[in-house]
Amino acid sequence: MSSQDEQFPAAAPDPAAPSADDGMTWWYRWLCRIAGVIGGMCKYPLPLRPKDPPPRLRWLNAFVLFLCEAPFCCQFIEFANAVSARADRLRSWQKAAFYCGMAVFPVMLSLTLTTLFGNAIAFATGVLYGLSALGKKGDAISYARIHQQQKQMDEEKLTGSLEGQA
Question: What are phi and psi of 156, to 5 degrees?
């Protein structure tokens, strides 16, 4: 083994890394990320009315969205890449539940127009991840096969009940 091989060992594939067969295309993954970043940016504005609650919770939610979806926005924080890597290892339904819950909680605390609009895009990010968890819809051939099998089973049940009556 050469000294260069000792200095730079071959990188083994990370088993916890997100797999390519998780059902999300590259453009859908970017759509989810962009929606998360925009959802984080929409939470930053200050309250429009004095009756609105303090924006600390919205800022915390926006910070978490930025950490999970866009760690390059938080380069000054040491653990940003670690949080993003951990968020990438989550399944789509887990991200959906986390983002939707994170968006619904402030709305439940204070139902105002600014809170509702500030959390709508973050909720939409959760919905996008939830849709990706459902997976692709089947092709027409598989649907036709299922329909044919159901039709055949119905005909068999019908002939069986007719034979029982005779």
Answer: -65, -40
